[in-house]
Amino acid sequence: MVPRGGHNESMEVRIRQARVDDSPALAALHLRTILFAYASIFPSEALRPYLGHLILDWERRLGDWTFRTPVVMSHPWATTSQG
């Protein structure tokens, strides 16, 4: 469990192999990362990456049994005392 800063909650973290059905979430994270990381490099008139293309790319990668990538899953819940 990982404590969450300033809150009376904990978050359980699990790591597992990514699956094809994770593609939309991974693509959305990928897109946000690209837009943030390269914002100062690409001119504002440059074409933005398209979420649909990123989803297809992640589906292709995760559908290939030789490609492996972990994903971190988190599940927040209110902390309770257990006795």
Structure in words:
Strands 1-2-3 form a three-stranded antiparallel β-sheet, with no helix packed on it. It has one domain. By secondary structure, the protein is α+β, with helices and mostly antiparallel strands. It is flat and about 40 Å long. The protein has helices at 23-37, 51-63; strands at residues 2-3, 9-17, 70-78. A hairpin with a 5-residue loop joins strand 1 (2-3) and strand 2. Helix 1 crosses helix 2 (51-63). It has two helices and three strands; from the N terminus they run E-E-H-H-E.
Q: Indicate the low-confidence ranges by residue numbers.
A: 77-83
Tally of strands? 3
Widest sheet: strand ordering: 1-2-3
SSE arrangement, N to C: EEHHE
Radius of gyration over C-alpha positions, nearest whole angstrom: 17 Å
Question: How far from one another are the termini?
Answer: 18 Å
Average pLDDT rating: 82
Main sheet attributes: strand count, strand direction, barrel closure? 3 strands, antiparallel
* Count of domain modules: 1
Structural class: alpha+beta
Judging from the principal axes of the Cα atoms, what is the shape?
flat
- Proportion of beta-strand residues: 15-25%
Number of helical elements: 2
Helicity, as a percent range: 25-40%
